[in-house]
């Protein structure tokens, strides 16, 4: 009995591995991808990157420009996230199963969250490009819509997971709905909410770089410009600046998380 | 003494099958200390929550301070709740906030929307909250966060939150079920004092028969949603207890005895 149980499990694993392998081979055949050539070209690509993609002295002259654009990108990300967080909080409180006012509003709230979240940020910026053209506002709005959808969902789940015992207690004292939200729901779930906001700021800074390429703003635009004008040294400096900025932001938000928990 | 609370033929139905309360009748006089005892699932919690309509009774009439509770509209219900304090088995505090903030939550029912949201408490309210914490022996803990307190201290914060409401009545839902014997004793003594010194009527749900016998003026025994005993602790004979706890009573007393020896 137990022998056949383990045999069945092993066969399942074997079958699954075979399936993945078959899918990979089919994909390789269809796309005409040469595996050997793919891997052997990696060292060559690295060689090229090392020889071309190193910031030189001339690139250093561009540093003030890069920092300026980087700051703009950072600030747009933070602004988009924080404004989105305010709206998301309202929708999450009203739409949550525990604190929600129920009925159609809860459904609308969940629906909005799903729609805004599932349209990719790149898609958002393309759509918005038509209405707003190539400027910072387009990038800001694209980030705002995505963060709004994501944060509404994340906040809703944080609130749903929270223990509702203090809500019951405040209801028993005769406190009104808004009082209960302000003094019980938000204080109890605040660490999770802040944690989600920090996470969204981090992702948005990464996304903002990509959006910048599309909307022609921020550090993404600068990278694109240098890259297309074959100024690889400056482009690499932009990349390094982005990496450093993200690392700094991450360590700051980790510190904040530790303090508020 | 005036009758403060009266249940008249109160029933509570969950869905079409479960009947949590059926035809409950009893009255509580002003300043009385009443314990409600009964086995788990007998409907004690439902009974208590029907008083301040945390749960709505299905039929019958509940009269509190000459007002019919079931007929109140939303605003009148909020007003009623400000005059009834409630204490919970799991304390139900906002753990991330300080003791004093949790106590002041008891005043929210008296606040306008804006003042409540911003937490604008008057000087008198803060002084009253501090006084109550002193009475309950928590003057050292005023600015501590509630998650740093022990169970007994948390329950005393819960009591202070209820008292700062300036209530006529205190509803206590298993206030000592999660506490050790020492803290339980402290809490029960405080409840007794609140009743005798402050003149606040106290209704307590209890698991422990001996505690109920020690502290109550009157005991209401509930089994399967009906009141099977209503009288003084002295009248609670073995037969009556068997009627409340069913055939399991003898086993229960053995366990209780064993626990107290331990």
TrEMBL record, chain A:
Q: Which residues cross the membrane?
A: 12-31, 74-94, 139-156, 208-227, 233-256
Its predominant location is membrane
Q: What is this protein called?
A: Phosphonate ABC transporter permease
Q: How does it sit in the membrane?
A: Multi-pass membrane protein
Pfam families noted in UniProt: BPD_transp_1 (PF00528)
Q: Where is the ABC transmembrane type-1 domain?
A: 70-253
In the record, the note on similarity to other proteins reads: Belongs to the binding-protein-dependent transport system permease family.
Task: Decide whether keyword Transmembrane helix is in the record.
Answer: yes
Q: Which CDD domains match?
A: TM_PBP2 (cd06261)
Question: PANTHER family given for it?
Answer: ABC TRANSPORT SYSTEM PERMEASE PROTEIN P69, PHOSPHONATES TRANSPORT SYSTEM PERMEASE PROTEIN
Q: Which GO terms describe its biological process?
A: transmembrane transport
At the top level, the lineage of the source is: Bacteria
The record ties this protein, via PROSITE patterns, to: ABC_TM1
Q: Which UniProt keywords apply?
A: Cell membrane, Membrane, Transmembrane, Transmembrane helix, Transport
Organism equals Paenibacillus agaridevorans
Tell me which InterPro entries the record gives.
MetI-like, MetI-like_sf
User: Metal-binding as a keyword?
Assistant: no
Where in or outside the cell? Answer: Cell membrane
A GO CC term attached to the entry: plasma membrane
Automatic annotation (TrEMBL), chain B:
Q: Which GO terms describe its cellular component?
A: membrane
Taxonomic path: Bacteria, Bacillati, Bacillota, Bacilli, Bacillales
- Domain (ABC transporter): residue spans on this chain: 5-249
**Organism name:** Paenibacillus agaridevorans
Top-level taxon: Bacteria
- Its recorded name reads Phosphonate ABC transporter ATP-binding protein
| ATP-binding recorded as keyword | yes
Q: PROSITE patterns annotated for this entry?
A: ABC_TRANSPORTER_1, ABC_TRANSPORTER_2
- Classification via SUPFAM superfamilies: P-loop containing nucleoside triphosphate hydrolases (SSF52540)
InterPro entries to which the protein is assigned, alphabetical: AAA+_ATPase (IPR003593), ABC_transporter-like_ATP-bd (IPR003439), ABC_transporter-like_CS (IPR017871), ABC_transpr_PhnC (IPR012693), MetN_ABC_transporter-like (IPR050086), P-loop_NTPase (IPR027417)
| Molecular function terms, GO-annotated | ABC-type phosphonate transporter activity; ATP binding; ATP hydrolysis activity
UniProt key word Oxidoreductase: no
Q: Which UniProt keywords apply?
A: ATP-binding, Cell membrane, Membrane, Nucleotide-binding, Phosphonate transport, Translocase, Transport
